[in-house]
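Help needed: design a sequence for this.
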């Protein structure tokens, strides 16, 4: 079988077959020089459901260090969050970028 989630199970008795948990993905915001801080805090509150204090802390981490983790999600949810951030940024003419990476 080619699906790596299952190949270790080949030949095992059914009661020994274990499914791995799904891979999880960090969603990160990237810093830029133009997106207003208030807009980033709003994105973190509305899309990532952070309270105002945590949203401000993540925004400052991104501003000071270049990137910061907004949350960790399954692949489909992470892809949706990235799209929602880019759509909101586009609608408001901000260059804000968001990426996902596997949480190994
Ligand atoms: N660096 C931006 C500014 O000084 C603020 C900012 C924070 C932008 C986080 C993007 O993901 C970001 N206005």
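Sure. Designed sequence:
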């Amino acid at each position: 079988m080619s699906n790596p989630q299952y190949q270790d199970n080949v030949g095992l008795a059914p009661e020994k077959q274990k499914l791995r948990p799904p891979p999880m993905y960090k969603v990160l915001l990237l810093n830029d020089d133009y997106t207003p801080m208030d807009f980033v805090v709003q994105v973190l509150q509305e899309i990532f459901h952070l309270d105002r204090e945590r949203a401000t802390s993540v925004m400052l981490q991104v501003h000071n260090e270049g990137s910061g983790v907004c949350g960790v999600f399954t692949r489909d949810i992470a892809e949706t969050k990235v799209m929602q951030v880019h759509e909101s940024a586009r609608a408001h003419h901000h260059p804000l970028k968001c990426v996902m990476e596997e949480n190994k």
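The radius of gyration is 18 Å.
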